[in-house]
Amino acid sequence: MKFVVLSDLHLGPPGSAVNGLDPAARLAAAVAAINRDHGNADFVAIAGDLADLGEVAGYEVLRDTLAPLTLPCHITLGNHDVPEAFLSVFGAGLSDPLAKVSKVIDLGGYRVILLDTTTPGTHAGALCQGRRDWLAARLDEARDRPVIVVMHHHANVLSLPVDEIPLADGAGFAQLLKRHPDVRMVISGHVHLTTSGVWHGIPMTTLAGGHYSVNAHLPGMAGEQLRLEGPAQMAVVLADAAGVTVHFQDYLNRHVELAAGLFPTD
Questions:
Q1: Taking Cα atoms as reference points, which of 180, 176, 207 lies closest to residue 47?
Q2: For 81-96, b where at least 16 C-beta lie within 10 A, e where not — what string?
Q3: Which of 94, 141, 209, 228 has a CA between 20 and 30 Å from the CA of residue 162?
Q4: How many angstroms separate the CA atoms of 203 and 22, rounded?
């Protein structure tokens, strides 16, 4: 199985800039890169923060900009999103009474769980009892195959400023995942930075996403955390019976390609 994860698009109304960036143009670049480089992927998952202010117009831009995408696309929400506005554009059928905007994709011998971690009125995330029960049931019925979870909020401690707004009760979430014998990876957006780690025995990773990025402003570093114009980044997930690999592709960056003559061959 191969799939692509996008996150943190932060779209506004048509023609509008968000934090000095053009999020629609950046998403269009992602779509072009996916069609060009990953047309053999099984699907695209978008892990929330679709519209910066949760406006209907932002979701209309999302719908229209995704139109050229040649792959199936599955979407969940982030803390900047307004479910009612999203559903008014993409359809009320995407919301489940228990799971909210969550879904399951069974493919390639895996179960991929796209999990809605949003909580109205806060930038932090949480799982209500309905979503906890839904997640437990989806894990229990897939004990015969490995699981990958894609969601917006990070649950693990990163020692970064964004730890002020994580998934609430991250340790409880980890214990919930442990009811399954083979959770291979949890992939999140939200933090605008690429990270990887193992937490409570579960592999965790985040991607920088499509809007601005931040530096790894760790405890003890002077000054404030930096906000940078990029790179705009997607995660490319490769999964087989043996394991999961996550590659990070910057579809917008400012790096110069080195001349081939700098690498002589023997």
A1: 207
A2: bbbebbbebbeeebbe
A3: 94
A4: 33
Is the domain spanning 2-253 CATH 3.30.70.20? The answer is: no
Q: What is the chain's pLDDT, residue by residue, as a tens digit (266 residues)?
A: 999 999 999 999 999 999 999 999 999 999 999 999 999 999 999 999 999 999 999 999 999 999 999 999 999 999 999 999 999 999 999 999 999 999 999 999 999 999 999 998 999 999 999 999 999 999 999 999 999 999 999 999 999 999 999 999 999 999 999 999 999 999 999 999 999 999 999 999 999 999 999 999 999 999 999 999 999 999 999 999 999 999 999 999 888 888 988 987 75
In contact, 145 and 110? CB cutoff 8 Å: yes
Nearest-CA neighbor of 74 among 48, 36, 39? 48
Residue holding tokens 């991929």? 112
